[in-house]
Amino acid sequence: xxxxxxxxxxxxxxxxxxxxxxxxxxxxxxxxxxxxxxxxxxxxxxxxxxxxxxxxxxxxxxxxxxxxxxxxxxxxxxxxxxxxxxxxxxxxxxxxxxxxxxxxxxxxxxxxxxxxxxxxxxxxxxxxxxxxxxxxxxxxxxxxxxxxxxxxxxxxxxxxxxxxxxxxxxxxxxxxxxxxxxxxxxxxxxxxxxxxxxxxxxxxxxxxxxxxxxxxxxxxxxxxxxxxxxxxxxxxxxxxxxxxxxxxxxxxxxxxxxxxxxxxxxxxxxxxxxxxxxxxxxxxxxxxxxxxxxxxxxxxxxxxxxxxxxxxxxxxxxxxxxxxxxxxxxxxxxxxxxxxxxxxxxxxxxxxxxxxxxxxxxxxxxxxxxxxxxxxxxxxxxxxxxxxxxxxxxxxxxxxxxxxxxxxxxxxxxxxxxxxxxxxxxxxxxxxxxxxxxxxxxxxxxxxxxxx
Amino acid sequence: xxxxxxxxxxxxxxxxxxxxxxxxxxxxxxxxxxxxxxxxxxxxxxxxxxxxxxxxxxxxxxxxxxxxxxxxxxxxxxxxxxxxxxxxxxxxxxxxxxxxxxxxxxxxxxxxxxxxxxxxxxxxxxxxxxxxxxxxxxxxxxxxxxxxxxxxxxxxxxxxxxxxxxxxxxxxxxxxxxxxxxxxxxxxxxxxxxxxxxxxxxxxxxxxxxxxxxxxxxxxxxxxxxxxxxxxxxxxxxxxxxxxxxx
Lengths: 452, 247
What we know:
Chain A is of the alpha/beta class. Chain A contains 15 helices and 14 strands. The interface between A and B is large, with 54 and 63 residues.
């Protein structure tokens, strides 16, 4: 296990110490006759708390000065914050389908634009429901070809506007947690919408002074790599930078981008403010001690990095995602993991391992908690696919990107250049690394169940 | 312009007689429609801008009674999600600068949500302390927070404090959001000049309640104190549909 923080005392040890010292101020189920071994024999509850389009660094606890995220901070403080987690495909539909099935988008085939998920693939609502769990989905779905009301025993949908509906989603989840029948463990996916509302803003034409920014509040500075354009493929320029969806903001100037970032961070604040309802309810229910909580986002957000907005491309701001995990007495609190490489396809196998049930078929992902606890990493890389056609390979240090139909490769040293400002693909001293990453991609693709 | 006045003018327009003459009496019923942008259409306007796909939502109804320095409200606010989410109940407030809610008793109803039951929200604010109780019976969450000043969308709609000057003063308060969250750091200031100059704002005075956990919320009020529009950033707005005299 890799942690950049001093060893944390587990809750069990803390309470034992209190008992020995005669403090007796903490009252836990353990002091009432239930020991940790009893709790461990119960299957854990599984709570996937997701947001949509959250930039991986846009949190107060990471030092972002433009955002106020007390509840996200609370989650990170209670568990392990994984800093090398990636979407399987950095756009809503395929990323979410990967969570559900443990499959890459080239396997499940739900890649957006109305394309439907493969019918033969089981999702975690079905799988865990068949293995003794009560399964719950509240909020955004966005996976064509699968009826969530049939996969989940408890289901409540959503409206696409996060500003309008996120608090209602939290209220629904709160009501469920406080009032549910306890004869089964639960698997819940609470899928919040924001900060995805920023997509609507990205579709609007340039303007100045026409939103209720009071003119005195400091606007966020532009990102350091706002102007940087490492050598990019013509395919990327055409399909991403030149896409019709990006044309409204293609003429924005610096002030427009700053106003966009200001609005984006407000959307983050907005959804964070509702998360406390769920966290408080989980604690009040008495089930927090036996709940594995994963807090993440389907993909990131450009937010001006490389002069880009929204998602669907393979730079860090879009492909990397926030990922905090809380599991009392099984994971340390307030810890950070900069080593474990995680993909969205790992949720299904990790949840299965936590619940002590088999996985549905031979999945390409891993139990990331097992990887986290290992003395040394066994996973060499993760792969992400792009809906526009292309792939990313992320190893411990490097990142390889190639878009379909173009021989140009991008290769970045993320240790030295986390902002991806300089394409090293043509450096002679790195040619073997570039080649090895290309081989990794081939290896990985050969393991997938991409039925024709 | 990133504003409901520009993005969805037809959907939220209030006819001129209502806009200018609406005058909340001591006992009346206020009905507000709500519009939310779902996404954009594949059509553009004459300037080449994508046209928004605007959803009509149920909105809210407030029955208001003014008794001396206090307000008594009956509120029904429906949000149309995959299942209707209805907040319905009563609220008592003081007619101070922020129209502070003093006590409230609401039911949160989730209509047709399989496996999810209704919820009760009650609370008090007194002597700088807010006490919020969510749930029912043994399944309750009780929170107590120190809150110096408090306001709420419903009390501001019912009786906007037009005597308060946002320029250049501002008052800091906290906002009771859907009865279950208290968001802090709200200040009052003026809307941007270009929004004030928009034709839809003609004859109205704008006030912005701005706090970090939301977009700046604009209240557009006519000369009689009736809130005509509430704009929550570019993609959501309330608009007055009717005022009904009840006394």
